[in-house]
Design goal:
Helix content: 10-25%
Order of helices and strands: HEHHEEEEEEEEEEEEHEHEEEHEEE
Shape: elongated
Number of strands: 20
Number of helices: 6
Length: 419
């Protein structure tokens, strides 16, 4: 989960892609250091589920260092199991997948790209009524981003990462007229960073079009500034490259267009617009601050599924929670890079194997696993009922390490890991 706390709207904050564990010099014994590392990762990552829409919790654990000592036993380290009785699988309180959906939604209508060239001022005036600012209230701060009004009855597209991949996020939208209203999270897809909100009322919806932009073409982004009142922002930029794959957290989406300009974090979820004033995509910003256009036609079916069902159909899940290991920690503690299993869900495919919490996933389907996005990329190729081979690295209670291979049968994901 990325954070979007900003002091300067023009300087995107760069957040490390994975969790860092700055707790001093590790023990020279691999077993003790490994136990501490796994304990901390388990503590931080508890209750965040990986499915087809797998995702990482990107947090600093400095504040937890005093709570974790080097005297913890191996059973403490690998036996941690978080309770999910009062949490859904995205880390929030319980909610019903499918609420606030519209089963009769006919799908997005994407127009052909227009031929009229509008001035920058006209582009802004055309699109800004259909762009809303989004405020997500957290326990210690409020984060800000943008959203695109898709339908007149209040379905709004934004970024799942802005919401913290949390169906129960407390969200307020604000229109160009500075009218504020509460919005609820209908559903999200963490592999494409898509989320759908629903607000009550009638709104001007954006005109959507297929993305026909190529390298060198001009493109605008219309977003909202990260402030408590609505301030529209227009970026005049261009396409520097096309067909790029964007990866951060568990996002792994291909076919994106890279923009010349680096946008502020509040541009995430904002409208990418052609010179005819048509919205052709949603703005994304990765953890390095690089900005992209996510074309509407690549995700239109996913958006339709989210509005109809509250989740994206046709996905599969592993039924585990976990967090990725950084290169720094892998080197310091003598363990391979991979994803530590935090919890194994009772109704997931891993529950039918002898995998344990604390095992490190190093390969799936013969593909090396380093990040959550790697897991997403593998699962995207499979259907429910498929069996995949997973390679695990395990540290036993006596400090020895071993490699195990398990066969995992994938389960259908009907929203369990998508919100």
């Amino acid at each position: 989960m990325r954070h979007f706390e900003q002091e300067d709207a023009q300087q995107p904050q760069q957040i490390p892609a994975q969790c860092s564990c700055p707790y001093g010099q590790p023990s020279p014994k691999r077993s003790r250091g490994t136990q501490v590392l796994i304990t901390i990762l388990v503590f931080v990552a508890a209750a965040f589920v990986i499915g087809f829409g797998s995702y990482a919790v990107i947090l600093t654990v400095q504040q937890h260092m005093n709570q974790t000592t080097r005297s913890e036993t191996a059973s403490d380290a690998v036996g941690f199991s978080s309770s999910s009785e009062n949490h859904n699988q995205s880390g929030g309180t319980e909610s019903t997948v499918g609420s606030n959906t519209d089963a009769s939604f006919k799908g997005l209508t994407l127009q052909h790209a227009g031929t009229e060239t509008l001035s920058a001022k006209k582009v802004y005036r055309t699109v800004s009524p259909s762009v809303v600012s989004i405020a997500v209230r957290g326990t210690t701060k409020t984060t800000y981003g943008s959203g695109i009004v898709l339908t007149e009855d209040g379905y709004i597209l934004t970024a799942a990462s802005l919401l913290g991949y949390n169906r129960d996020a407390e969200v307020t939208i604000r229109t160009e007229q500075n009218i504020a209203d509460k919005a609820v999270v209908v559903g999200f897809d963490s592999t494409t960073d898509l989320a759908i909100l629903k607000a009550e009322g009638t709104f001007p919806s954006a005109e959507l079009a297929k993305n026909t932009l190529s390298v060198g073409d001009r493109v605008y982004t219309v977003t909202a500034a990260e402030e408590a009142i609505y301030h529209g922002v227009l970026y005049d930029t261009g396409i520097s490259s096309i067909d790029r794959t964007v990866s951060y957290d568990s996002v792994n989406v291909s076919g994106c267009s890279q923009l010349n300009s680096r946008l502020s974090d509040s541009a995430i979820g904002g409208a990418a617009v052609n010179e005819s004033g048509q919205v052709t995509g949603m703005g994304l910003v990765d953890e390095k601050g690089q900005s992209y256009l996510l074309p509407m036609e690549r995700v239109s079916q996913k958006i339709t599924d989210l509005i109809r069902n509250g989740y994206v159909s046709g996905k599969v899940r592993l039924g585990i929670s976990g967090i990725a290991i950084t290169q720094e920690d892998a080197d310091a503690y003598g363990v391979p890079k991979g994803v530590v299993i935090v919890e194994i869900q009772k109704n997931g495919g891993f529950a039918e194997t002898d995998a344990q919490a604390g095992d490190i996933i190093t390969k799936m389907d013969g593909v090396s696993i380093v990040t959550m996005g790697d897991i997403s990329a593998v699962l995207e190729k499979h259907q429910a009922g498929d069996t995949i081979e997973v390679e695990l690295y395990r540290v036993t209670e006596n400090g020895e390490s071993e490699t195990k291979t398990v066969q995992v049968t994938l389960k259908q994901d009907t929203g369990q890991t998508q919100g």
